[in-house]
Each structure stands twice: as C-alpha cells, then as structure tokens.
Amino acid sequence: MTAKTIDGKAVSLKIKEQVKTRVEKLKEQGIVPGLAVVLVGEDSASHTYVKNKKKTCESLGMRSDLHQFPDTLEEAELLSVIDDLNKDPDIHGILVQLPLPKQIDEFKVIQAIDPSKDVDGFHPVSVGNMVIGKEAFLPCTPHGIMKLLEHYGINPAGKHTVVIGRSNIVGKPIGQLMLQQDATVTYCHSKTADLASFTRQADILVSAIGKAKLIDHSFVKPGAVVIDVGMNRDENGKLCGDVDLADVQETASFLTPVPGGVGPMTIAMLMENTVQSAENGLL
Ligand code: GUN
C-alpha cells in the first residue's frame, strides 16, 4: 500500500476562497473583518508565523493590525493593550502570538481576551465550551485537522485515535474534537513508556511532539491515517515533521506532508474564525 497524501495546501485554498466570499458580503454591509495580532519579542518562528497570518488576512480583504513589542514589555502594559483591543469595535479577532517572554504570565494574558474575540480558541471559556460541545471558537490547528479528515472522507467514529503530545494548543484539544466525533482516544506524551506499543494500535495517529522524523514505520499500524503536526528542522536544516515520510509511505493509508499538510490549515481556520467573529457581531 502506498499512502495517499493529504493536501492541506489545496484544502486550505478552498477554505480561504469561502472566507473571501464571506468577507465581500460583510463589506457590502460596511464591515471589514479585523484581526489584531500581538507579537512580543524576537522569536524568529513567531515572526514568520505572524507575517504569514498578516499576509493571508490582507489577501482575503481583511484588516490586520500588528502590535509589536520588545521582549522587555511588562505584563501590565500587555494587559492594557488587550483591554483596548477588547473595546475596539473594528477589531473582531485578537491573537497573542505564543510563547511570551517569561516575565509575562501567558494564562493571565489569554484570560484577558474577550472570549467573543478569541479567534485562537485558547480562552478557558472557549476551551470549556469546546469540551462540552457548545458553540466556541475552536483552536485553529486541531480544527484544521478535523477539516482535513472530513475533506478526505475519513470518519473518526469508532476509530482508535492516538495523540502524541498534550499541549493546550494541539494535543489536548485534538483529542477532545476526536472524542466528539466518536473516536476512542488515547493520549501519549513525553513520559509515556513504550510509545510504539500505543501508536501501533492507532487507526488515526496524530503526532505533535516536535521530534524530527521520530515516527517511522515501526510506530504505525498498516493502513493507519497519520497526521503530522511537527515543525522541525532535519540534520540539513530542512523543514520536516515528526514523521519519517519516506519510511511510513508504504505502511500508512493517508499521510499529511510537512510542509503543506496541517500548517496551511491552521492559518485558514484562523481566517474563518475571524470572519465568523465579524458575522457574529451582526446577530
Ligand atoms: N504559537 C504557536 N502556535 C500558535 C498559535 O496557533 N497561536 C498562537 N497565538 N501562538 C502560537
């Protein structure tokens, strides 16, 4: 069996086209969806992510404001910026790029965002609503993964999903979204003993651990769907995921490549959440 490639780039383009149409409709009513992105410090990956988010916003006709600060920014100053953005009627989404410098309490900052503008889906109110299956902004990467599965006709119901990683951004929420679609979910993480004994039981394997090419065919059940959330550099400095794609190709049924798999979906879902937030303002 040769695995089918899950083309996140192609699916994300379709979603962005739909977002663009929704933006045009809003503009006819005098509303320009606006995303405020807050970036603190010099982390180069964060700068790249933020640049891409801004560029995508603008390509879809949305407003995008970047609020950039040095890594010496005090927590109180950041909280005051968020307070202003919460009150700004032209801003529909607020995204604070993580990680933040260590003098700033991330949780306090996330909590300060108005949940109605929480397009990252990180606020405890959003997380709570997601877990109980109520309307909420869903975190962009896990939501993007669910959209990919849907697009390729992969139904998680009754399947064993094994998640590697337990971050608040990806690992925990992807397990919850899978559970809501009737998957049986196992969480593995850095302290899991004999990781492969769990991953080999997965019908759907989601890897979000950040270890270049760790997952080879010995971790994968024949016919499994393998979703790679890793963004790593290999020994030559080339971008790669957690999965050794070449080695797993003949074992898995579906694979997401890195780049071009989950990554483009994250931005597309952020755009969708932002336009949704602007539409919610009309309700
Ligand atoms: N840092 C890494 N991924 C993300 C993300 O999806 N959102 C934010 N705000 N920060 C991140």
TrEMBL record:
Q: Which residues form the Tetrahydrofolate dehydrogenase/cyclohydrolase catalytic domain?
A: 6-120
Write down the InterPro entries for this protein, in alphabetical order.
Aminoacid_DH-like_N_sf, NAD(P)-bd_dom_sf, THF_DH/CycHdrlase, THF_DH/CycHdrlase_cat_dom, THF_DH/CycHdrlase_CS, THF_DH/CycHdrlase_NAD-bd_dom
User: Hydrolase as a keyword?
Assistant: yes
Q: Tetrahydrofolate dehydrogenase/cyclohydrolase NAD(P)-binding domain spans which residues? A: 139-280
What keywords sit in the KW lines?
Amino-acid biosynthesis, Histidine biosynthesis, Hydrolase, Methionine biosynthesis, Multifunctional enzyme, NADP, One-carbon metabolism, Oxidoreductase, Purine biosynthesis
SUPFAM superfamilies, per database record: Aminoacid dehydrogenase-like, N-terminal domain (SSF53223), NAD(P)-binding Rossmann-fold domains (SSF51735)
Q: Which domain of life is it from?
A: Bacteria
UniProt-annotated binding residues for NADP(+): G165, R166, S167
Q: What one GO molecular function would you report for this record?
A: methenyltetrahydrofolate cyclohydrolase activity
Q: Which reaction does it catalyse?
A: (6R)-5,10-methenyltetrahydrofolate + H2O = (6R)-10-formyltetrahydrofolate + H(+); (6R)-5,10-methylene-5,6,7,8-tetrahydrofolate + NADP(+) = (6R)-5,10-methenyltetrahydrofolate + NADPH
Enzyme Commission designation: 1.5.1.5, 3.5.4.9
Q: Pathway, per UniProt?
A: One-carbon metabolism; tetrahydrofolate interconversion
Reported function: Catalyzes the oxidation of 5,10-methylenetetrahydrofolate to 5,10-methenyltetrahydrofolate and then the hydrolysis of 5,10-methenyltetrahydrofolate to 10-formyltetrahydrofolate.
HAMAP family reported in the protein's UniProt record: THF_DHG_CYH
What family is this protein classified in? Answer: Belongs to the tetrahydrofolate dehydrogenase/cyclohydrolase family.
* Subunit architecture: Homodimer.
What name goes with this protein?
Answer: Bifunctional protein FolD
